[in-house]
Amino acid sequence: MSDDRIERDIVIDASPEHVWSLVTQPGFWVAEEESLPGTVAREGETTLARNASYGDYPVRVERLAPPSGVAYRWAPAFPGADLTDGNSTLVEVTLTREGDKTRVTVVESGFTALPDDVRARTREANTEGWPQVLQGLGERAERPPEEDFSTAFVVEEGPDAAFAAVLDVRGWWTDDIEGATEQVGDVFVFRHTDVHYSKILVTEVVPERRVTWLVLDTELSFVEDTTEWIGTSIRFEVTPTAAGTEVRFTHHGLVPAYECYDACSNAWGFYLTYSMRSLIVTGAGMPALKALPRPF
């Protein structure tokens, strides 16, 4: 085993999009859990990970590659110190989808660059610590979800028609969309005047069954925390039933504790149960138009 590198992994019974929202809280491995909500990784930015027992650690985001990779730099032996090549290590986190589960792999490297007097004990402590961190991460990810906003409707049309409507984002949400919206890896931008901007990555497309999005960036001008959507995920599930086809929408991470919950859930309710349903049944949805936008 290399003296410069620690590698550990775990399989978590949660979607990569949900796990992503947890591992992109800078310092998730050392910060106290109650301090993490609302923190978001942005490439090049440094966040202070707070821990009353061990100290406060500056954590810099070195690389952000949604939805599967993030890298951080921190100084495990020097709480509070400015980060340098000689006092810090690199923590690389990779997510891999395995069915409905997620394999999380963590590699921490750079121990040989640490000063002689702290190198061995820091590597030993982190070698013992990462399995505990990953176990804790799994427990957080597998907890019953908070009250994520969800809504559903049933149509007589088949799953093919419903699935086609889900992919036709301009047909039911807004015509002010930039970018492709139908394949894994597509990135598109939603805008509503100066009120709402979101950058969204398509992370999963299972024909006639499921589509999942990850919110990469957002700005909601009508709430105090304009970034509330960042790291949340949006899932559309298409399911044949005895009555026809059910379309279920869930915005994972949009919970009542968020200031935008009431306005956003009401708007989603309209765009799903009225606009998308109309698109499936009649071929014409009721999207917001750039010339005449609706309030969302």
Question: Keywords for this structure?
Answer:
296 residues, alpha+beta, Alpha-D-Glucose-1,6-Bisphosphate, Chain A, domain 4, 2 domains, 24% helix, 34% strand, elongated
CATH fold annotation of the largest domain: Alpha-D-Glucose-1,6-Bisphosphate, Chain A, domain 4
- What does the average pLDDT come to? 92
Q: Radius of gyration from the CA trace?
A: 21 Å
Number of helices, counting only DSSP H or I runs of 4 residues or more: 5
CATH superfamily assignment of the largest domain? START domain
Form type: elongated
Domain module count: 2
Distance between the termini: 53 Å
- Largest sheet features: 7 strands, antiparallel
Helix and strand succession? EHEEEEEHEHHEEEEEEH
Report the helical percentage: 10-25%
Structural class, from helix and strand content?
alpha+beta
**Which CATH C-level class of the largest domain is it?**
Alpha Beta
Percentage beta strand: 25-35%
Blueprint of the fold:
Blueprint: E1 5-12, H1 16-23, E2 46-49, E3 57-65, E4 69-74, E5 89-98, E6 101-109, H2 116-142, E7 149-155, H3 159-167, H4 169-172, E8 177-178, E9 187-192, E10 196-206, E11 210-220, E12 233-241, E13 244-252, H5 261-282
Antiparallel strand pairs: 1-6, 2-3, 3-4, 4-5, 5-6, 7-13, 8-9, 9-10, 10-11, 11-12, 12-13
Outline of the structure:
The protein has helices at residues 16-23, 116-142, 159-167, 169-172, 261-282; strands at 5-12, 46-49, 57-65, 69-74, 89-98, 101-109, 149-155, 177-178, 187-192, 196-206, 210-220, 233-241, 244-252. It has 296 residues and is an alpha+beta fold.
